[in-house]
Design goal:
The chain is of the alpha/beta class. It has 14 helices and 24 strands. α4 runs parallel beside α6. The structure holds uridine-diphosphate-N-acetylglucosamine.
């Protein structure tokens, strides 16, 4: 298994190109199952999760070619309506094929995702929503069996704003008969991107970018060409990499409008940020001011940047409190950061971080994708050598992370590890 090795202490400087958003590409790839024909999707990040979704689409019968960050997907011969356990266990986003299969073929069998490093992560909202649209759902031997004679529009009000459930219900409703209203829909930019992709295919959706979506079902949808939006979590991670190393970095091919909560928190820390159309310039102060965050659905502070923020606060000039309201157990990075000398106390869904200028390199273990990124950031700052093990987590969501950081001047490389 690969590991990333970092000799910390270098100030990052230069320009970095942000990739397409993983969490937009994955539901959009699943949504191609809603129509028969040839799709072209550009600005797709070359990531393990994208390859897993491509593999899943091939199992279902699609022809998928991926080259130079563009996907060609031919969905004409789809004839196997199943997402097997072997794939779902490596990528929970496989659940996104449930609604498109059901909407187009009126049946689907998808392995029930289990818990993960972020906690229990149920899919009850996806299933209840599909039942409201007329699906029959049975759980048997670890699988979700869904079928319907036809799907019919309904009013659905989510008790919790869920990205995945909103995406799945949206994909079912576009081909359901009649009108569907989703209340308390999530409107993360990736859901907005999915909705815009569906509209391009011929769907009728109102309220895009708000918490109330109204969908009028259509008889069929068409294949289209589409370009994926920039990755706001990768954007945020590089902004924090610049800030933590005392660096000066320009991010290109991104969108400042989708990272406003992070940018405002970075400014509170005295980081200088300048924004242009698709660029963000970031210059670190001599000392990072401590600033607490509480994660919340968009446009609040994203849970997917919580671990990286904690690393930044580990070197701030004082104490801060970090609270995760989305995944209350998302703190596996705390023990690993402590191995580097971080001073963090966990209290239920919060962590109190006391900044120190004494981070020292050590071997640490990635426990999930964003926790892994937080350890890379810590390694960039820590004195001496940090080995980040289990890089496969990081490879799920960061395209060429060590190459991009090397271009910014980091002393970082990948090695074959023993674990
Ligand atoms: C998506 C993102 C993930 C991000 C998360 C929150 C993708 C592929 N993944 O995950 O990176 O961390 O949004 O922004 O886009 N919940 C239920 N029942 C359900 C569904 C969700 O109780 O049926 C709860 C979850 O446990 C969690 C909250 O709702 O507490 C939000 O989760 P959700 O938005 O659904 O996350 P995902 O779509 O799985």
């Amino acid at each position: 298994m690969d590991k990333i090795v970092i000799n910390g202490g270098t100030r990052l400087k230069g320009q970095v190109k942000i990739s397409g958003a993983k969490n937009a590409a994955l539901p959009i790839m699943a949504a191609t199952l809603l129509a028969s024909g040839n799709f072209e999707i550009h600005n797709v990040p070359d990531l393990r999760d994208v390859k897993t979704m491509a593999h899943l689409l091939r199992i279902i019968g699609a022809q998928v070619d991926f080259a130079n960050n563009s996907l060609r997907i031919d969905t004409c011969k789809c004839n196997f309506y199943e997402a097997p356990y072997e794939l779902v266990k490596t990528m929970r986003a496989s659940i996104y094929v449930l609604a498109p299969l059901l909407a187009r073929f009126l049946e689907a069998k998808v392995s029930l995702p289990g818990g993960c490093a972020l906690g229990s992560r149920p899919v009850d909202l996806h299933l209840k929503g599909l039942e409201k649209l007329g699906a029959k759902i049975h759980l048997k031997k670890g699988y979700i069996f869904a079928s319907a004679k036809r799907l019919t529009g309904a009013s659905i009000s989510f008790a919790i704003s869920s990205v995945g459930a909103t995406g799945n219900i949206l994909m079912a409703a576009v081909l359901a008969q009649g009108r569907t209203v989703i209340e308390n829909a999530s409107y993360e930019p990736e859901i907005t991107a999915l909705a815009e992709f569906l509209v391009k295919m011929g769907a009728n959706i109102e309220g895009i970018g708000t918490g109330r979506l109204t969908i009028r079902g259509v008889d069929h949808l068409n294949p289209v060409e589409y370009t994926v939006i920039p990755d706001r979590i990768e954007t945020g991670t590089y902004l924090m990499a610049a800030a933590i190393t005392g660096g000066e970095v320009e991010l290109t091919d991104t969108d400042p409008k989708i990272v406003t909560s992070l940018v405002s928190k970075l400014r509170d820390c005295d980081v200088l940020i300048e924004e242009a159309d698709s660029k963000i310039y970031c210059k670190a102060p001599n000392q990072i001011k401590p600033v607490g965050i509480t994660t919340a659905p968009y446009p609040g502070f994203p849970t997917d940047l919580q671990a990286q923020w904690m690393t930044l606060m580990c070197v701030a000039n004082g104490s801060s409190i970090i609270t995760d309201t989305i995944f209350v157990d998302r703190f596996t990075h705390v023990a690993e950061l402590r191995r580097l000398g971080a001073e963090i106390k966990r209290d239920k869904s919060s962590a109190v971080v006391a900044g120190t200028d004494n981070l020292n390199g050590a071997p640490v273990m990635s426990t999930d994708l964003r926790a892994g990124a937080s350890l890379v950031l810590a390694g960039l700052k820590a004195q001496g050598r940090t080995d980040v093990l289990r890089v496969y987590h990081i490879d799920r969501g960061y395209e060429k992370i060590e190459e991009k950081l090397k271009l910014l001047g980091a002393d970082i490389w990948r090695e074959e590890g023993e674990l």
